[in-house]
Structure formats: structure tokens, C-alpha cells
Amino acid sequence: MKSVLRTIGFAVILFTLSACSFGASTAEEMYEHLEKALELEAEFQEQQEPLVELEKEEHKIYEEMITLTTEQMDQINALSEEALATINEREERLQKEQASIQASQEEFKKVEALVADLEEENVQQSAEELVTTMEERYSTYQLLNEAYTKAIALEKEMYTMVTDENMTMEQFTEQVEKINTAYEDVSKANKTFNDLTNKYNTLKPAFYEQAGLDIVFEGNDTEVDGASDNESEGQEDAS
């Protein structure tokens, strides 16, 4: 079975205004909402490491399980229960992750409403590109979430199937192939999401600069690498 370790996230690049004029400008209002949207993704970010660890744990269980025979059903059943427990926890963390992204998206809509109020054309164009990129990122996250949800649902089916002594090797192999295909979709969406995240993190400070905001870089708590560099994939024989 293919294992794809999710390495998705938002490079936590925070900025603060070192000085504000009397009466906030449109750009300053946008800054407030942009940084608030980032803060609302904290819960999303907190789920990433635990999700990866749960994936590793589940894959280790799978590798142990496929070494057993039908004469060892007690062990297979026990391992199946362990695997299902890790998947249930992944589902719970996925729900928290999605809620965090949705909250961020709602806050970001306040940015979209302000773009037309920017007076300088070049600043407005910069803001439009920033907004378009973030909207694509949110849409891609939804695709990623759906693909990942489908993949773990197929895994749950597999761990239920293996407790049936009448299951055939053909049925098992077919299910593993479905899981592998599902994780290929996860991998593609994962890479696109990370690419858009990195693009956004380049566009945002550029927009601040064009808008004339006096910003201070606060730090980068989480490094985001492209999924293609961090995925761990290995094909296991269904035997």
C-alpha cells in the first residue's frame, strides 16, 4: 500500500506595522484582515505533525498485518482495531483542520471586499493577484481534504475486510489498488496546495511594499517545503 506523508501547511510569515497613520488606510485595513486570516490557521497548522505521525503508525501496523496468515486471525483482528483507531483520530484532526481553514477563508473575504477601494492601479493589481492566489489555495485545500477523506475511508474499508476470514486475496489486492489511486490524488492536490502557499507568501510582502506599508518581519515558525520533496512513498506487495 502506498504511503503518502502529508506535508501541507502555511509558512507562518507574520508581519507587523511599525507605524500607523491617523485613521487606517484601505491597505492598512487589508493588512489587519490578512494577518488575522493567517492567525486563524493556527489550528490547521497544529494538526500537521500529529497527522503525519498517525499515518506512520498506521502504515507500520499495515506492514505487520500483511505478514500474517488466516491462521493468525486473532492478531489480524487486534491490528485491525489498532489501525482503525488511528484512522478515527485522523478523521477528528481533519475536521479541526477544515474548520480552521474555513474560519480563515471567512476572514479573508473581508480583504476581497476592500481591493476595489485601493486608489493606485499598480497596488490594486498586486492585491488582485494576491486575492486570486489565496482563493485558489482555499479551493485546492477543499480538493485535498476531499481526496484525503476518500483515501482514509477506503483504508477503513480495508481494515474491516481483513477481519473476514472469507475475504479473498483478489478482493484485498483490489482494495489496496483503490487506496493507492486515492493517495495519488492526495499527492497531486498536496503539491498544488504547497505551491500556492509559497506563491502567496511571496506576493503578500510584495503587496505590502507596493502599498507603502511600513512592515516588520516577525519570524517564520514553520517551514513549508513542496510536497514533492517531502512525500514518502513506497509500494507494498499485497501478500
Describe this structure in words.
InterPro entries: Lipoprot_YkyA-like, YkyA-like_sf. This is Putative cell-wall binding lipoprotein. The chain has a single domain, classed as YkyA-like (Four Helix Bundle (Hemerythrin (Met), subunit A), Up-down Bundle), CATH 1.20.120. The protein has 6 helices and 2 strands, in the order E-H-H-H-H-H-E-H. It has helices spanning 26-39, 42-65, 73-112, 121-161, 169-210, 227-230; strands at residues 13-17, 215-220. It has a two-stranded antiparallel ribbon with strand order 1-2. It is elongated.
Structure, briefly:
It contains six helices and two strands.
Architecture blueprint of SSEs:
Blueprint: E1 13-17, H1 26-39, H2 42-65, H3 73-112, H4 121-161, H5 169-210, E2 215-220, H6 227-230
Antiparallel strand pairs: 1-2
Helix pairs in contact: 1-3, 2-3, 3-4, 4-5
State the main characteristics:
single chain, 239 residues, mainly alpha, two-stranded antiparallel ribbon, 6 helices, 69% helix, elongated, disordered C terminus, signal, lipoprotein
